[in-house]
Design a protein that fits this description.
Length: about 850
């Protein structure tokens, strides 16, 4: 190469250099080191490493919350750092049992002891800060059991949405993180049931790359992670080859025949110097009525000491942006890992379009208008519930949501069988295991992002819809239901109120259970993992033909099939389910009257007959998971209230008074039901409620001061939208019945929370409601990274100890993003409660920090 060529090559190299500014700054700045933070994890600027702060859910071993986790520049990008028995573990693959954890807060060393009881094998995972990185070691006092050699390995999983479109390097060899899984698979002699494959030979993914040094996203300072192994190589797998909810997995097999320190990884999650999380302006995406309390809460990185002004801006039709005079935002204080400032702009009443701006961070537009809540419940009524209708074909314009589903329902579940989804069959059953139960293939809704009919959910929804229909006379008609053809058309009126048709659809399923079995059953659910994990068209889940064991697989004869794909009915008797169903049937009979008189009469008759039967014997207390009803006394109380409202029979009023002392301690769960009984009860009943209601308001005031959003925020493995809506609905009904005690402000706080005034983001948790709402959710269409209009998600999940999370880029976090039908009916009720409450009587209510 001549001199000119060399110079040109040098110039070209300089011109093509695109080292990011953050990386340049980092090379010139001293890197901060990992150290133990009083909050309870290893921390350095922009990076947190959680060490077994969270653990695998008791139901699903893999809920993507557990082991060693990394929060990098504000996003939890890695989880499940632990010894696992598969390269890409599925949702039901085994995970170790947590034994203990010790923390040396001075050195930051965390030692966790775990065990695989089935193999009588314990191990420890030790995490030690080493400068900007952490050394992760696996220590054994006994070798890897022979049965686990070649299976047991240390895994760490990385969120696909954080690394798609980025590169990696394995010992310097470059590669690209794929948008869609496309790596090779290897056939295995045995099928892994947890993989979701129903039959045929098994298959496991081969690694995309392998090396002792693995760098993910080297080009992105905010996501770069470096892993080094001092022994076995680190293999990189794509878990989405096995299941759509799989993650990228880094894995090293544990060596055989060794004890002591058998594996050491050094993990460094890059810290961007000076990084600060962008402000989040929490507010209602739907907007506010003129008289409403209007709060905007800015969520800030605690290290963000910059001063900013929160502005309210009015948007003109010509695009003009006019600042509106409002008071200065006030500091609220710290909550979880963030600090907050809050603006009360309740004095702004002029209708129009607005947005909020904080130091250059702007929200989407929202309205101030009298009719804010008028249509807020329509997507749930018009789309979400029709899409959830089981045993029907559902069409929306050019789109087929699903064909007629589960026409082959259902066969008796095996005895003494515990299902993967909290169902359990006891030692007895009214039918032989595997026997077809005729008549169950009508009515009901898919419970959640999966397709089971959970009876407890069915009767909760029926009662909620009945209450909304009766209280506000909801007569919207946008859905056509043809039972004879098993056909539903969305956006096509048929002359019958949609709310009545939905109540009827749920009632058909409950009545079918009593007709076919004699009582309310636990539910109907898929028989195996393969069907349970089905995504998309519910109509293709089964062949819609009743299974006949006499036929060969694939053979069909006389409307029967040799394919055992029929769902299972779990039929163990539980009085709680009977009482819960009684309540729904009694309530439904009132709404159905005049539309389907025969079904109304039958529902009421079943309710009264079953009440008499249950009152004649000791309760059947079979209980398992969340599929066998609530506490018996609460379900009985609900049944008595609804029967009283339907029949006006004094014996139900007497029973309500008898049960009240047992209900009072659980008033928060029963406030709505208890309050709805007041007009039908003697004055002594309301008087007995007074001290309990006063205590509720005191507790509500305490909850309002606990966080800047003024509502109870849960910290379990399932996020708390349901709890928030329950609080708001209690606030509504108790304000209606006890206005001298309950101020009703919780209604506004609760609906604002659902619509974007919450931690972690400002997104509405009701899909298609509000300017920016959940568009990537855990519905049965989750593999499409899509949504179902009107579906309500669980919302903000607090990853212990202090990280609020809700992903809009990865739908498979079911604890954050899964639609469930009771939350749908609660939303319809809450939106209408807020519509009723909107007015001058609720004009303030900004919660203050303690």
């Amino acid at each position: 190469m001549n001199r000119l060529s060399k110079r040109l090559a040098l110039v070209a190299a300089l011109l093509c250099s695109t080292l990011p500014a953050a990386t340049v700054a980092q090379t010139a700045a001293a890197k901060a080191t990992l150290a133990w933070d009083p909050a309870g994890y290893l921390h350095t600027s922009g990076v947190d490493m959680l060490v077994f702060s969270n653990w695998y859910d008791g139901l699903f071993a893999d809920s993507k919350i557990g082991g060693i986790e990394i929060i990098q520049q504000g996003v939890r990008t890695a989880t499940n750092g632990d010894v696992r028995l598969q390269a890409t573990p599925g949702q039901w693959d085994p995970a170790a049992k947590y034994i203990s954890r010790t923390v040396d807060q001075k050195t930051g060393v965390v030692v966790t002891t775990l065990e695989y009881p089935a193999y009588n094998w314990r191990y420890t995972v030790r995490v030690e800060p080493r400068g900007t990185a952490a050394a992760i070691t696996v220590d054994l006092t006994q070798p890897v059991p022979a049965a686990l050699v070649g299976k047991a390995g240390f895994n760490m999983e990385f969120l696909p949405s954080a690394y798609m479109h980025k590169s990696y390097m394995a010992d310097g060899r470059p590669g690209t993180m794929p948008l869609h899984p496309a790596d090779a698979m290897v056939r295995t002699p045995d099928r892994n049931p947890a993989s979701g494959r129903a039959d045929g030979i098994g298959a496991e993914p081969l690694p995309m790359a392998s090396g002792t040094r693995l760098v993910l996203a080297p080009e992105d300072p905010a996501r770069r992670v470096t892993l080094r192994s001092d022994g076995p190589p680190i293999a990189l797998f794509d878990g989405r080859n096995q299941a759509q909810n799989g993650w990228f997995v880094a894995r090293s097999l544990l060596p055989a025949g060794r004890t002591g320190r058998v594996l050491t990884w050094t993990v460094e999650a890059n810290s961007v110097p000076g990084w600060l999380r962008a402000p989040v302006i929490a507010h209602s995406q739907l907007g506010y009525t003129p008289a409403a309390c209007k709060l905007a809460t800015v969520e800030l990185d605690r290290a963000d000491t910059r001063t900013g002004r929160l502005q309210l801006i009015r948007v003109g039709e010509d695009g003009s942006m006019t600042p509106v005079a409002v008071p200065a935002a006030k500091p609220w204080g710290n909550y979880l890992r963030y600090r907050y400032v809050q603006l009360d702009f309740s004095a702004v009443k002029q209708p129009g379009t607005y947005l909020l701006d904080y130091a250059g961070t702007r929200t989407a537009t929202f309205r101030i208008a009298d009719d804010i809540y008028d249509k807020a419940w329509h997507p749930t009524n018009d789309v979400y519930f029709p899409v959830a209708m089981d045993h029907m074909a559902v069409n929306e314009g050019y789109r087929v949501w699903h064909g007629p589903a589960h026409l082959d329902d259902a066969v008796q579940a095996p005895l003494n069988h515990e299902h993967i989804d909290l169902y359990r069959q006891g030692p007895t059953a009214p039918f032989k295991p595997g026997q077809h139960i005729a008549g169950l293939n009508v009515g009901g809704w898919f419970d959640a992002g999966d397709f089971d009919i959970r009876t407890q959910s069915q009767y909760q929804v029926i009662r909620q819809l009945v209450s909304a229909r009766e209280r506000w006379g909801l007569d919207r008609d946008t859905v056509s239901v043809n039972d004879a053809r098993r056909q539903v058309e969305i956006h096509v009126p048929d002359g019958i109120p949609d709310m009545v048709q939905q109540v009827r659809h749920g009632t058909l399923q409950l009545v079918a259970q009593f007709d076919a079995v004699g009582y309310a059953i636990n539910g109907i659910v898929e028989p195996d993992v393969a069907q349970y994990t089905h995504l998309g068209d519910a109509g293709s889940k089964t062949d819609r033909l009743v299974y006949d064991a006499k036929l060969k697989p694939g053979e069909e004869r006389n409307g029967r099939s040799g394919i055992p794909d029929d769902r299972w009915a779990f039929t163990s008797k539980a009085s709680a389910l009977n009482y819960g169903s009684i309540a729904a049937l009694a309530a439904a009979s009132r709404v159905l009257k005049g539309y389907d008189n025969a079904l109304a009469t039958k529902a009421r008759a079943i309710a009264e007959r079953t009440w008499t039967q249950e009152q004649g014997h000791a309760p059947d207390l079979f209980s398992h998971g969340n599929t066998t009803g609530g506490p018996v006394v609460q379900e009985e109380f609900s049944a008595a209230v609804e029967l009283l409202r339907t029949t006006r029979d004094k014996r139900y009023a007497d029973r309500i008074m008898t049960l009240w002392p047992q209900i009072a301690p659980k008033f928060d769960d029963m406030a709505w039901t208890a309050a709805e009984a007041i007009p039908f009860m003697p004055a002594a009943y309301r008087a007995a409620m007074l001290p309990v209601v006063q205590a509720w308001q005191t507790q509500a005031d305490t909850a309002a001061r606990a966080n800047p959003f003024g509502v109870p925020i849960t910290t379990g493995g399932w996020a708390g939208s349901g709890t928030v809506m329950g609080y708001a609905l209690n606030s509504y009904i108790l304000h209606r019945e006890f206005p001298e005690i309950v101020d009703g402000r919780g209604v506004q706080r609760g609906i604002d929370f659902m619509l974007g005034h919450h931690p972690a983001s400002d997104i509405s948790f009701v899909s298609a409601v509000g300017t920016v709402s959940k568009e990537v959710a855990y519905g049965n269409n989750r593999a499409d990274f899509s949504y179902i209009a009107g579906g309500v998600v669980p919302g903000v999940l607090v990853i212990k100890p202090d990280y609020p999370e809700n992903h809009e880029d990865w739908p498979f976090f079911w604890g954050e993003n899964e639609y469930v039908i009771p939350e749908g009916s609660m939303w319809i009720t809450l939106a209408n409660a807020a519509r009723e409450m909107a007015g001058p009587q609720v004009t303030s209510g900004a919660p203050n920090a303690d």
